[in-house]
TrEMBL record:
<protein>
    <recommendedName>
        <fullName>VapC9 PIN-like domain-containing protein</fullName>
    </recommendedName>
</protein>
<dbReference type="Pfam" id="PF18477">
    <property type="entry name" value="PIN_9"/>
</dbReference>
<dbReference type="InterPro" id="IPR029060">
    <property type="entry name" value="PIN-like_dom_sf"/>
</dbReference>
<dbReference type="InterPro" id="IPR041120">
    <property type="entry name" value="PIN_9"/>
</dbReference>
<feature type="domain" description="VapC9 PIN-like">
    <location>
        <begin position="3"/>
        <end position="115"/>
    </location>
</feature>
Length: 121
């Protein structure tokens, strides 16, 4: 199954010490997708954030190399929503507003549960 990974999804390993790829495989995903819009958000965080957020952004950018890059730019949340709908893919995110929006469109969401594993809606 396909899963699109949001910016904060890629930051989970650094922030919560959870291996998102092992977890995604455990729950049935094998095609990890990252839009270029997410990479651009990570680059901005890498320049502007400080401390642990900056470290998490650097780690997230390196982890994105394990994913299939889709060359679509723009507002990351909008790109993810449209891409998920077009590709019939689920989305890994911890963004509450994006999660609500995706669920309202019938898109399945993968999220961090109890700060130690991933679960789906």
């Amino acid at each position: 199954m396909k899963v699109i990974i949001d910016t904060n999804g890629l930051m989970i390993p650094a922030q919560f010490n959870v291996d998102i790829f092992d977890e995604l495989i455990r729950i049935g995903y094998d095609d990890f997708i990252v839009p270029k819009a997410v990479i651009e958000e990570l680059e901005i965080l890498n320049k502007k954030a400080k401390g642990t957020d900056r470290t998490a952004a650097k780690i997230a950018k390196s982890l994105s190399g394990r994913c299939r890059l889709v060359d679509i730019t723009g507002n990351a949340d909008d790109v993810i929503e449209e891409l998920a709908f077009e590709m019939d893919a689920d989305v890994l995110t911890n963004d509450i507003e994006l999660k609500k929006k995706l669920i309202s469109r019938g898109i399945r969401v993968v999220y961090l549960r109890q700060k130690n594993c991933l679960a789906t809606t």
